[in-house]
Every structure is written in structure tokens, then in C-alpha cells.
Automatic annotation (TrEMBL):
The organism's taxonomic lineage, starting at the top: Bacteria, Bacillati, Bacillota, Clostridia, Eubacteriales
Organism: Neglectibacter timonensis
Function description: Part of the ABC transporter complex PstSACB involved in phosphate import.
Membrane topology summary: Lipid-anchor
Keyword terms: Lipoprotein, Palmitate, Phosphate transport, Signal, Transport
Biased composition (Low complexity): 31-63
Region Disordered, residue ranges: 30-70
Keyword Lipoprotein recorded: yes
Signal peptide per UniProt: 1-21
Location in or out of the cell: Cell membrane
Official protein name in the record: Substrate-binding domain-containing protein
Family: Belongs to the PstS family.
Amino acid sequence: MCMKKAVSAIAAVTLCAALLAGCGSTENFGSSTSPASNENSASTSASSASGESSAASTSASGPITVISREDGSGTRGAFIELFGVEQKDDSGAKVDYTTEDAEISNSTEVMIQSVAGNTAAIGYISLGSLDETVKAVKIDGAEATVDNIKSGTYKVSRPFNVAMKGDSANEVAKDFLAYIMSQEGQAVVSEKGYIGDDSAAPYAGTKPSGKIAVAGSSSVSPLMEKLIEAYQALNPGADIELQTSDSTTGMTNAIDGVCDLGMASRELKQEELDAGLVNTVIATDGIAVIVNNDSPIDELTSDQVKAIYTGETTDWSELA
């Protein structure tokens, strides 16, 4: 009988010990750091170190996913020129040396979504299109801001052009362009995060009725949409159709008479001017080099961006 009681007591003690051990495991699990938290901690540590002279964090590693825009994109054209990805060959012809491994996005929206969904990605977009879903990195120590573009500290900028065929523009197109370049139109430009003309005169147009089409760059398109809304509030008789594609298509459509106004997020090419297009710079825009919000990369040099996009640098660890 005493033996049975002893066995029962031992079993009870063993069960309690097991339960206590289980409780301890549960507490440890609850207070442990999840893999996601570890990643965030690593990103935070890397971000804290970004104040050092090194442009890229030493904790960054892994293959780089390079994302570029399609041929014909004005943003691509400006980007490869500004960063030296485009160079002249022995014959003097300009050659785009963007790596063949680059993924291609056919619009600003797709570019943002691609970078936002890939922690290893790098891309570039219009500064005016930048939102909280991605992170713009400093270039050569300068942040991508309107003030820095105005001061010349941030040098990665390009014009937003609107072009029309000199001998065929209708009255609505002319009046709409006059509105864009007016004090009211340039105020819209500034409100949307671009650089406009602060000295523009007030709008004094004739407000003609009719329909026109505006077509081209997906970088210019978000700003153009707001300009159309503001102009139609003043001139309800204007019916303006906005067609978004790329800069080259916009210029070609304006030359061919498919649209009344073409949009380009770059300088016009000589052959486009020779075809009769007359361009107007409606705004200045920066090009933001973007990475995923969870990327430890906060800053790059111009040479590093060039090396990434030409395929010379393929792993983030090479930037340390």
C-alpha cells in the first residue's frame, strides 16, 4: 500500500514538472523574436549605419533584381543618359547598355508594384509619382526632393514636355496648353510635387469648346490628369481624352495626328523636332531611384547605380 502511494506521488511530481516545463516553453515562444522581427531588426541596424561614409550598408547581400522601363519610355531615356548607362560606341552612335537580365516594367505603376513586392529589387520612377510603398535612396549624398532639385544638389532630373504639330493644333489644344503654362496651371504642377514656373501670368484664355486627345508618357500622365481636371472646371466645354503609353508613342502620335498633344518625360529627339513638333516644357521632374521599404540600402552613388544597371554589379554585397 505504501509502495503504491509512493509510486503515485512520484507520478504526480513528474506530471507537475512536465507541466511547468511546458509553461516555460510557452513563455519563451511568446517572447521570442520571429523571423520577420529579425529581418526588421537587421534592416533597422543597417539603416542606423547609413550615416557612415559608405553609400551602401554592409549588411546588404544577395542577388540584385534590376527593374527597368521599356524601350520608348522617356523615364528610361532620361535615366540611362543621366547615369551614363547610355554611351556612344566607336561609331558615335548612342548605345543603351542596360543589363539583359533586367526585368522590364511597362509603366510607372507596374515599376512601383514590382519594387514594393521584392526586397532585392531596385528601380526608378518619376519623383512626383513616389509614394510610401517604396523608398527613394539618396544619390551622391542628396535626397530626392523638390528643394534639392531646385538648388542643384540632386542632379537626377529631366523635363516634362508637351508637344503639338505646329501647323495643326486646334483651339482647344492651344488654350489648354496656355492654361497649363499659366499661374493657375503651374500651381497645379507645384501642388503635385513637380517644379513649375513661379512667375507665370494668370490664365487669360478664350475657353473654346471641342474635343482633343492627349497621349504619351506614363510619368507625365498623373500630372496631366490633374491639369485636365482643373482646366475642365474652368472650361466645361472642353472634352479632353487622356491616353497613357510612353514618350516615344506620344511623340509619334502627335506627328501622325493621332493625338493633339503628345507627352514626353524627356527632351525631344531631333527627328521629332524635324517632323514638325513644337515642344513646351510644362514642369521639371526628378527621377527617384527606388528600393523596397525593407531594404537596408538608403544611399547609393551615381557610379554604383550605373554598375548595377550595366550588370557590372549583380549582388548587393558588392556595394559594401
